[in-house]
């Protein structure tokens, strides 16, 4: 079986969620560093235009969005589980909270604090990504409020730990911990001194240190050309389609995120589960590529 290739950059918060999950599972993987901003000429041939980070590649199968990536890791490498309590319900809820409410507070706190120090090229890129103004002045005004929200979010995490447990679901770490952790890592990495400790939020900082100590598994580096060659030398895995999606089988469709980074992924509808959608693409250089996205937060539109 082809190995795990993660297209990433080190400062990416959503990639940190995945890296912690790789650490929980003790997996070996290869990092392909991609640019923070467009263009991304060594990524989009694999994804069909999708530009967000992280992207996981296993052979000719391309998995977009951290929510799908961590579940594919669980499917392929089930032990140790990312769901140590025996089901994914709690982790699903924590992840949705972290990816939406907590992430938005983190963005306001970080970029409001950085203020005029934010690179204009980054601002332009993120405006293209979101389709909205990247208003640094408004973020600066909101930064103090955002910091109060960050601390309130930390208190929510700490409430899980009042019975003495080491991690959010007990004595073993899981996706809940990785999801809750990565935004606080984002803030503390980008803005040292801003929210480095929450001394009056009992148990939080010790939990944060325990999650950080998990590490990222066995990481090595790969150059982009080798990742493209790995895709070219592989074939996508066989896929099934849910009965409810049979009408789309074989049709040309566009898969698009519904929040931001809506660049469509065009391909032949070839697979679905209750949690994922898949298309097959034929790249002129790489051959057959399967691109997979989460069902939640992504639309499928037939041509």
TrEMBL record:
InterPro entries documented for this protein: DUF7962, Glutathione-S-Trfase_C_sf, Glutathione_S-Trfase_N, Thioredoxin-like_sf
Single GO term (MF): transferase activity
Record keywords: Transferase
Pfam families named in the record: DUF7962 (PF25907), GST_N_3 (PF13417)
Keyword Transferase on entry: yes
Domain GST N-terminal: from-to ranges: 2-81
Protein name (record): Glutathione S-transferase family protein
Higher taxonomy: Bacteria, Pseudomonadati, Pseudomonadota, Alphaproteobacteria, Sphingomonadales
